[in-house]
Amino acid sequence: xxxxxxxxxxxxxxxxxxLTINCTYTATGYPSLFWYVQYxxxxxxxxxxxxxxxxxGSNKGFEATYRKETTSFxxxxxxxxxxxxxxxxxxxxxxxxxxxxTFGSGTRLQVQP
Amino acid sequence: xxxxxxxxxxxxxxxxxKLTVTCSQNMNHEYMSWxxxxxxxxxxxxxxxxxxxxxxxxxxxxxxxxxxxxxRNFPLILESPSPNQTSLYFCASSSTxxxxxxxxxxxxxx
Lengths: 113, 110
Hints:
The structure holds two protein chains of two kinds.
Chain A: E1 3-6, E2 11-14, E3 19-21, E4 23-26, E5 32-38, E6 44-50, E7 56-59, E8 62-65, E9 75-77, E10 86-93, E11 101-103, E12 107-112
Parallel strand pairs in A: 2-12
Antiparallel strand pairs in A: 1-4, 3-9, 5-6, 5-10, 7-8, 8-9, 10-11, 10-12
Chain B: E1 4-7, E2 10-13, E3 19-25, E4 31-38, E5 42-51, E6 54-57, E7 65-66, E8 76-78, E9 87-94, E10 99-101, E11 105-109
Parallel strand pairs in B: 2-11
Antiparallel strand pairs in B: 1-3, 3-8, 4-5, 4-9, 5-6, 7-8, 9-10, 9-11
């Protein structure tokens, strides 16, 4: 079945550092790929998405590119802020009616001033 | 404001005492779903519903029931909760393949 693998955290960075959170997936067909963010005590918010190979999703300074050849969707940000501290989930969705999201286990990011 | 709401947000109960977690969305979405979140496992789908009166099992349906009598509501029912159902539960709704999540319900079963 489908699966998503994320780098384990926590990832601890200083403010203004460059961020990369790795995500690779296994799926049949051509899934859509997502990054969700969960701030402390809150639900999941969609951060960005890409629906086909070579698409780049971007939002709030975060970017991720759908790489079919390496089955990856790594999240990057050029300069993190303390307010980016959260748990980040990579996920994929197949195009069946079930529309289930398959999530990675999440990566906690801690940004220090 | 477009949103998915869940109630209660926090619940502590005892083994075997039936409970219901409500979920409501105001976006007129046909599709709704329940997930549970456990440390190190990410989120796993419990049940989903393609439309009113149409529900189906997700990856971890054992011990749960759902109903979909109206488009906006999708309650999750635990008829006889057990400690292994202690978890953080999220409801979601969707019009395409982009899902919107509620704030979560933290359930503890003792």
